[in-house]
Design a protein that fits this description.
Among the domains are: 188 residues, no CATH class; 151 residues, no CATH class; 83 residues, no CATH class. Helix 6 crosses helix 7 and helix 8 packs antiparallel against helix 14. The N terminus is likely disordered. It is mostly helical. The strands form three sheets. A three-stranded antiparallel sheet has the order 3-5-4. Strands 1-2 form a two-stranded antiparallel sheet. The longest helix has 21 residues. The radius of gyration is 27 Å and the shape is globular. It is built from 28 helices and seven strands.
Length: 612
């Protein structure tokens, strides 16, 4: 890993924000610079920035954008009790350092990295979930986090970061393409099979990059076969598959492996079947990095250092562009997966500055977000999506629907209150306990030689050292002694999206509302539709909210109809009702509707589902 002092060389001191406690002057200077760049661009196009939003809109927006849910009534009261002039900045700091931010960022990254509970033929990936959440909790710099995923080795049960490369273990070329697209915005997919028709990348370029992984084995073992070899009267094949997966799915160096050009390679710059020599790609105007060693063991580390380097002309740009889109609804350069020509960005100067800011904060994602959230541009009124073909120049954020995760987490906070931010599930230990405390033969056939000690170890994992082939099934070794809930819609199900199975089944509210199936990167949807509307109007989630949620119970304790309506509005929409709304709600209650009906109306309003 590159020492952090080296990476700090040559950074602009005026923008130094490399610690969490960076001074307000540095933050405000960077935020003002972003505002100035956008204001200049708006003026060039005869446009004006939107008006600044009031505190009510700001609080709801920043809660949704930073911790992924609406604020509670108590949180609203706490903000408005603060009379300091910098209370917005201090709220931003508080939210960025909260457990809710970890949950929200996990959802965002899980969509980007296609995080699932189960990978085909690999089994459970809970160690990856815990690893990723730990990185977010500790605020690991983005370059270090990515570097660790690209260089991870060992067993999945011991090192959760290996799951990133194991995700596409059976498709190494696709894995490289996804890596370059996700972390660099490099549009190289076509170059797997032929020279790219619209970009600089050639098929040779692609294979030269793939060869950095040529001596790495991503062992995505079909553990069904060794399980058949090992099974006996105590453990079924399904049980042993579960036991073997955290041990046999791994990333290791393999000296017998290398990358060769395909047999159908059709260009005259290399021969079919010829061994590929690793070489870094570059962009026009950028200096090509040199490969400094021929040691196959070092190639993956060299690749990771090159990709995450501050000198890479796309790494900082890619993550800065993605985070900007997270807050504004549209990136400076769309699509975020194609940064081949930075000059095609809506505002090239803005994208250049955001990338430099990312480098200046040393890839600290919280500090980068802190600067963006404190801009006037972010705190201005929203705009509607412009007509197709018309570029959006950021007079403020776009009007956006909540993501599926934001909607779910906002409903859950109404059910349980803000305790949900503290409720964390961690199943990694269920996998870690399965890791063999000894070396064993990874060969699918020869593993029989280790049957005795594998079965002996398996017995230590079962209750009273006993097992039955007919009981427990596939989950015998994955039983948690502290399982939450159990009943349908019990408290164990009213958890934040980040703490539920990844992703949820297609019939769950999250999926209906647009949660990605995690087969394709960045596939979450905010389009809405009839199915989501029906779930909001008639689903058991809304029914639970209307009858037994924490917010309904709190509203019922109020003394007057007016106080009850006011609390419902504050809890759902983060504002007080207008006089007209209050009178209509009170009249409806007097005519026989109940408080749950008023809640239903608010939850199904456009004002609830949109981030304004």
């Amino acid at each position: 890993m590159i020492p952090r002092p080296i990476r700090n060389c040559g950074l602009l001191l005026g923008l130094m924000l490399a610690t969490t406690n960076a001074s307000a002057d540095d933050r405000d200077s960077a935020s003002s610079r972003i505002d100035a760049i956008i204001r200049f661009d708006l003026q060039k196009h005869d446009l004006q920035p939107n008006q600044l939003i009031g505190d009510i809109q700001f609080v709801r927006r920043v809660y949704l954008d930073v911790i992924g849910r609406i604020p509670t009534d108590q949180e609203l009261a706490s903000f408005f009790a603060d009379k300091g002039r910098d209370r917005r900045a201090r709220l931003i700091d508080e939210l960025l350092d909260s457990p809710g931010h970890e949950s929200h960022m996990f959802n965002w990254l899980a969509d980007m990295l296609r995080v699932k509970d189960d990978y085909y033929r690999i089994g459970k990936t809970w160690t990856f979930h815990t690893w990723l959440k730990t990185q977010l909790r500790e605020n690991r710099p983005w370059d270090e986090l990515v570097h660790d995923m690209l260089t991870a080795d060992g067993r999945l049960g011991e090192n959760g970061a290996t799951a990133y490369l194991l995700r596409d273990a059976s498709m190494p070329l696709d894995s490289l393409s996804n890596t370059l697209t996700t972390f660099l915005g490099a549009n190289v997919a076509c170059a797997q099979c032929h020279d790219h028709p619209f970009a600089e990348w050639t098929q040779k370029d692609f294979y030269e990059m793939a060869s950095f992984f040529g001596s790495t084995a991503f062992e995505r073992v079909d553990t069904r076969k060794p399980a058949i070899t090992l099974r006996d009267k105590n453990f079924s094949k399904a049980n042993l598959v579960t036991l073997l997966q955290p041990n046999m799915e791994r990333v290791v160096f393999d000296s017998t492996r290398s990358t060769t050009f395909p047999e159908d390679y059709a260009y005259d710059d290399a021969k079919p079947g010829e061994k590929v020599v690793p070489k870094f790609i570059t962009w026009e105007g950028a200096r090509r990095a040199n490969v400094t060693t021929n040691d196959p063991r070092q190639m993956r580390n060299l690749f990771a250092r090159w990709l995450t380097s501050p000198r890479n002309p796309r790494f900082a740009e890619a993550i800065a562009n993605r985070l900007w889109k997270k807050f504004f609804g549209v990136a400076v350069k769309e699509p975020v997966t194609d940064l081949d020509v930075l000059e095609d960005a809506t505002n090239p100067q803005l994208l250049n500055y955001l990338a430099q800011l990312m480098r200046n904060v040393d890839f600290d994602l919280r500090n980068f977000q802190r600067v963006i959230l404190n801009t006037k541009t972010y705190q201005q009124q929203v705009s509607v999506t412009p007509p197709e073909g018309e570029e959006f120049r950021f007079p403020g954020p776009l009007l956006r629907r909540m993501t599926a995760e934001q909607t779910w987490d906002s409903l859950v906070v109404l059910v349980r209150g803000n305790e949900i931010d503290q409720l964390k599930t961690d199943k990694a230990h269920l996998m870690e306990r399965l890791v063999f405390p000894f070396e064993f033969n990874h060969d699918r056939k020869d593993i029989a030689a280790d049957r005795e000690r594998i079965i002996e170890f398996a017995m230590t994992l079962t209750p009273d050292g006993k097992a039955s082939n007919g009981e427990g099934g596939r989950g015998l070794f994955l039983q948690s002694k502290n399982r939450r809930g159990g009943e349908r819609r019990g408290k164990g199900e009213w958890l934040r999206a980040s703490e539920l199975p990844q992703p949820m089944p297609p019939t769950h509210f999250l999926r209906i509302a647009g949660q990605s199936a995690r087969e394709v990167a960045d596939d979450g949807s905010t389009e809405g539709g009839i199915t989501e509307s029906l779930a909001m109007m008639n689903g058991d989630v809304t029914e639970n909210l209307m009858t037994s949620s924490m917010v309904i119970k709190a509203v019922q304790r109020q003394n007057t109809r007016a106080e009850q309506v006011a609390l419902l509005y504050r809890s759902c929409l983060s504002r007080l009702p207008t006089d007209r709304d209050a009178k209509r709600c009170i009249a409806a209650l007097d005519q026989g509707l109940d408080l749950g009906d008023i809640l239903w109306v608010l939850l199904n309003s456009r004002e609830f589902i949109f981030i304004q």
